[in-house]
Amino acid sequence: MQKIILFFSFLLCFYLKSNAQTLPDSCKLAFGTNMSGLADYSTELPFVDLMHNCRTWYTKDANNPNAGFDSEKADKLAYRPDGYPTHIPQTIRRVRFPQKVATIWASTNGWQAGKYIVLFDGQGTLSFSGGLTNLTATSANRFTFDFDTPQDNMLEMVIETSLASNPIRNIRVLMPNTENTYLTQPFNPIWLNKLLIFKSVRFMDWGQTNHWGQKDAYDWDSPTLFDWNDRQKMDYYTWSNSKGVPYEMMIKLLNDYKLDGWVCVPHRASNDYIRGMAQLFYATLNPERKLTVEYTNEVWNWMFGQANWCNKYGKLATGKDWPECIVPYIQNNLNIWTQVYGTNVGRINRTVGVQTAWQDVSNRIVHNLAKGTFDSFAPAFYFGLSDEQDEITLDNLGTNATARDIAFYTRKSWTNNEKKWMQEQKKQIADSLNIPMVFYEGGQHITPTPFGEEPTYAQALLDIQRDTAMYNLYNEWFDFVRTLQKGAKPLQLMSFGFIGERSARYGSWGILETMQQDINAINAPKYKAIKQNIRNCISITPFENTANNSDFIIFPNPTCDEIHIKNLYGVEIMQIEIISSDGKKIGTKQIDTQNISLQFKEYASGVYLLHITLKNNTKTVYKIIKQ
C-alpha cells in the first residue's frame, strides 16, 4: 500500500506542475549541489587525471645537498603558455643554485589503492617521493607506481631536467585502469556514482570564483580586467590555480550526464570575457540543459577579493556608496548574457545573489536593477550557531559538550535568526517582485567563533557530523524551507558542499567525507537526509558479486521515470533485459550505442532486475526498486 501511495504522489507532482497549481510537500524541493574547488589535499577528485588538481609549482635548489622543501623562486622562472617551465634547471641572477620545479599532492586520502600511470611529452627527467612503491620507468615518457595505502600519505613530483628545445609538458597522472580511456571518459566514476543523485550542479568553486585571478587572498587591488583569452585553458598544467576548471569541462559534464548547471562569472571579467563565456555556453551546451548565471559570488563577503575589489572600484567608477556601487557590475553581466542569448534567453536563469542575513543590502541591490533583466534572486539556506551561544554556552561546556548540545543551540538559533531572515527575503523580494528564490548554497553552517580557531567543544562539532542529530536537523530544516515555496515550480536548493573532510576549526562542509565513504560503516546523515528528500520513485543498486558494474554509470539515481546508462570504457553491450521479481522477462533491448536510455513510466511499483549482457557473455546485474 505504501508503494502505491508513493507512486501516485509522484504522478500528482507532474499533474499539478503541468496545471500550475500548488505542489504537494513531497514535490516542493529540487536539490543540487556545489562542488569543491580542485586542490592537492582534497578528498573530492572529479577527474581521473590527477595532474589537474596538483599544487601550483614551487621551486627547489638543484645540486644543493642542504636544499629545503621550497626555495620560493617560482615567480622568477620562465614558463610556457601552458604553465610548464621553458626548461629546467633555470639560473636566476644572484641566486647561488640553479632551480628546478616541483608539485605535490599533500593528501592522498581520496585516492584509491592500485597502479598509477604517469605520462608526459618532451624530453627530461622526473623524480617522485612519498607513499608510492614500485616506481618503474617503462619507457622514456611513461612511469608506473603502486599506491598500496594512499590513506595518510602524500606524493611529490619534481621536474629534475627539461630540455629547452623539447621541454617536458602535458604530464598526466592517471588513476588505475584509465590509461586507455582518460581522454574520452575524464570523470572519476567513483565520484560520479555519488554525484548523480543530483540533477544540477553549481560550479562556483570549480571556477575558483572567490579571489578569481589573484595570486593570493590579499592580491585583489588592481583595476586590470581579464579578456576572454585570459580564461583557464584545457591544456594548462593544473586547474587548482586561481582560474579553476575550464568551461569546456563544465559543459562536458552537463552534456554527458544530463545535468543542469550554475556558473559564476569572474568579477574582473571584461565585456570581451563575459561575451566569450556566454557565447561558448550558448553554442556548446545542449539546449535542453538549463543554465543559471550569476555575477561572481558573495560580493558582500569581505573575506573574498571580489567584495573588496567591487567596493573600491565600484565607488571610483560610480561615485556611489556600497552596495549601490556594485549594481552596475551585476547589471552589465545580466545585459551581456541577455544580448547573447537573444530570443533564446529562456534557456538561462539570470539570477542575482543576495545575503540572507542582511535584508537592507539585498533590497538595495535587487531593487536597483532593471526589471525584466533578471529571472530570480539567490539567497542562501544555511543554519548554524549564533555567536553568543558559541562563545558563552558551548565554550563553558567545553569537552563536556555533545552533539545533542550542538543540535539544541542550532535549533534555537534558527528560530531566532535564519528562519526569520529567509521569510523576510521572500516577503520583500520574491513576493514584491513576483520572482522565484533559488538558493545558491546551504545546509549546516555549524562552525566555531572565531572561525579558524580550535574551540573547547571541538569534538562535539566533529561528532554531530556523523550523528543522527544532524539527520534530524536536516529533515526539520527542509520541512521549514518547503513553507517558502509557492506556485508550480519547486524551490532549487544547491547544497554546500559535496565532499570534504570534517574540521572543527574551518567547518565540515562535505555531505560526504570521501568519495569512497561506506555510509553504512561511517554515517553520512547529511547525504542520507538529502537523498531521502529528493523526490523519486526509482532507485538502482548494483549487485557487488557481478562482473563489470564499475564499467557503467546509471543516472539519475534516484530518479522518477527515465534512467540513462553510460558505457564508460567502451565495453561492447549485446543486450539489456528487465526482469520482474518473479523471474519474468518483461523488457529486452538490443544495443547499438554507448549511451542508453530506458523508460520506466509504464512499469508498476515493485522490484526488478536489470541485466546487462556483454559481448563475452558476462552479465552485470542491478536491482531496481520502483515505489
Summarize it.
With 627 residues, the protein is α/β, with parallel strands linked by helices. The chain has helices at residues 2-18, 189-195, 247-256, 271-284, 305-318, 327-341, 359-366, 387-397, 403-416, 418-433, 458-463, 468-482, 525-533, and strands spanning 29-34, 58-61, 99-105, 114-121, 124-130, 133-139, 142-147, 155-162, 169-174, 200-202, 260-265, 291-295, 348-353, 376-378, 381-384, 438-439, 442-445, 491-495, 538-542, 552-555, 562-567, 573-580, 585-590, 595-599, 606-614, 619-626. It is built from 13 helices and 26 strands.
Describe this structure in words.
By secondary structure, this protein is α/β, with parallel strands linked by helices. The chain has 4 domains: 50-174, no CATH class; 187-378, no CATH class; 382-535, no CATH class; 538-626, Immunoglobulin-like (Sandwich), CATH 2.60.40. The protein is 25% helix and 24% strand. The protein is built from 13 helices and 26 strands. The N and C termini lie close together (10 Å). 41% of the residues are buried. Mean pLDDT is 91; it is low at 1-12 and 14-20.
